């Protein structure tokens, strides 16, 4: 282990030691309030360009396995914890968290005062920090690595999307054919749809309207993904071109892109929502759902009604918009992750609504 510093633009420094070494660089730091699921966090493409601070202190005790990964690789820049446990114990585990990060050349940083760091991020907002093992002065490090690497204004979805179209595990009995726009798709979403009879064909964010319409799909799902939705103009235009022709559902970044496609604005949250314990009010069912969330931007409520949409879900922590729908329900989106791995699963009914929308479209 070697000493590591997290250096912010105001000169604030947090100290730790590495249990896995990555390249010196800049990443936006956010905190995640989940008590478990660190493998899912590591492999969630929505964390591209970010370093994640786990607020739960003990991380690593159940190791890494071959079944819980949400994508093909690690996308975040650093995992920052209070107490890293190298010794793991779980019947499915095949390696330690440290070995997993080291193989991907990603920072694992422990012995950080994560409580103080979380309070700093809450007060100052999610912002970039230099991650370095250098012993140079703070001033020298900041001259070498200017803190300009914010996710705001970057089309990070284009960096994590698939390079070519592909199909997921086709179910034995195909009931619906779904086009998935990969802004940073998670395996849990694909697995859930497959288990319910959907053949999922996954496309990059540059897929053309004509391509989707020519393949006679029953519905379109705009996936989760990282960063700022506004620069993801290709998907915004795709949604506009498909409106009224197919049911369109969106998750997380997909939710924000659906809003933008209908003239509803988005904005950057102070420190975002990251964790698996966020309460949301389901307005339609008048019940509370505990949800997994991972996003730094939100939908502006001001333009929702004028666009012909209504709010279906509200985040109870800060009253932000957590779900919208159009009048006939053929377009729906949620700001949280209904497919959440490892959980919670309060909101999987979102997928049932998607399937019902495709049923209605088939009948009509």
List the helices and strands and how they pair.
Layout: E1 3-7, E2 13-20, E3 25-32, H1 38-42, E4 50-54, E5 58-59, E6 78-80, E7 83-84, H2 97-103, E8 107-110, H3 114-124, E9 127-132, H4 138-144, H5 157-160, E10 166-167, E11 176-181, H6 187-195, E12 198-203, H7 209-214, E13 219-222, H8 233-242, E14 248-251, H9 253-261, E15 266-282, E16 287-299, E17 309-315, E18 321-326, E19 331-334, H10 349-363
Parallel strand pairs: 3-4, 4-6, 5-7, 6-8, 11-12, 11-13, 13-14, 14-19
Antiparallel strand pairs: 1-2, 1-9, 2-8, 3-9, 10-12, 15-16, 15-17, 17-18, 18-19
Helix pairs in contact: 8-9
Overview of the molecule:
The chain is of the alpha/beta class. The chain contains ten helices and 19 strands. The strands form three sheets. It has a ten-stranded mixed β-sheet, with helices on both faces. β11 (176-181), α6 (187-195) and β12 (198-203) form a beta-alpha-beta unit. α8 crosses α9 (253-261). The longest helix has 15 residues, at 349-363. The N and C termini lie far apart (63 Å). The relative contact order is 0.13. The model has no long low-confidence stretch (mean pLDDT 95).
Q: What are the defining features of this structure?
A:
364 residues; alpha/beta; ten-stranded mixed β-sheet; seven-stranded mixed barrel; 10 helices
């Amino acid at each position: 282990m070697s000493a590591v510093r997290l250096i912010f633009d105001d000169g604030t420094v947090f100290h730790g030691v590495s249990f896995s070494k990555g390249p010196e660089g800049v990443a936006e730091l956010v905190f995640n309030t989940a008590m478990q699921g660190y493998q899912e966090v590591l492999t969630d493409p929505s964390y591209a360009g970010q370093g994640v601070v786990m607020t739960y202190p003990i991380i690593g005790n159940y190791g890494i396995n071959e079944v819980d990964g949400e994508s093909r690789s690690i996308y975040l820049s650093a995992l920052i914890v209070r107490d890293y446990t190298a010794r793991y114990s779980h019947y499915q585990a095949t390696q330690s968290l440290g070995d997993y990060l080291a193989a991907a050349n990603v920072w694992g940083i422990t012995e950080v005062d994560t409580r103080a760091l979380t309070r700093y991020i809450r007060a100052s907002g999610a912002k970039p920090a230099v991650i370095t093992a250098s012993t140079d002065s703070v001033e020298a490090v900041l001259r070498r690595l200017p803190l300009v690497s914010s996710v705001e204004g970057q089309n990070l979805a284009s960096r994590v999307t698939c390079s070519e179209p592909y199909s997921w595990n086709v179910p034995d009995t195909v009931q619906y054919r779904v086009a998935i726009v990969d802004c940073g798709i998670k395996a849990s979403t694909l697995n859930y749809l497959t288990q319910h009879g959907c053949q999922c064909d996954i496309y990059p964010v540059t897929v053309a309207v004509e391509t989707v319409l020519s393949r006679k799909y029953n519905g379109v799902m705009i996936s989760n993904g990282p960063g700022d939705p506004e620069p993801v103009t290709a998907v915004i235009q795709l949604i506009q071109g498909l409106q009224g022709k197919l049911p369109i559902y969106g998750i997380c970044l997909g939710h924000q892109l659906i809003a933008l496609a209908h003239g509803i604005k988005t904005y950057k949250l102070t420190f975002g929502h990251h964790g698996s314990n966020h309460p949301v009010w389901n307005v339609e069912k008048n019940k509370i759902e505990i949800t997994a969330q991972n996003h730094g931007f939100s939908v502006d409520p001001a333009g929702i009604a004028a666009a012909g949409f209504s709010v279906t879900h509200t985040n109870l922590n800060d009253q932000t918009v957590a779900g919208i729908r159009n009048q006939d329900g053929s377009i729906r989106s949620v700001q949280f992750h209904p497919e959440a791995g490892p959980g919670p699963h309060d909101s999987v009914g979102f997928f049932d609504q998607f399937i019902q929308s495709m049923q209605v479209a088939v009948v009509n």
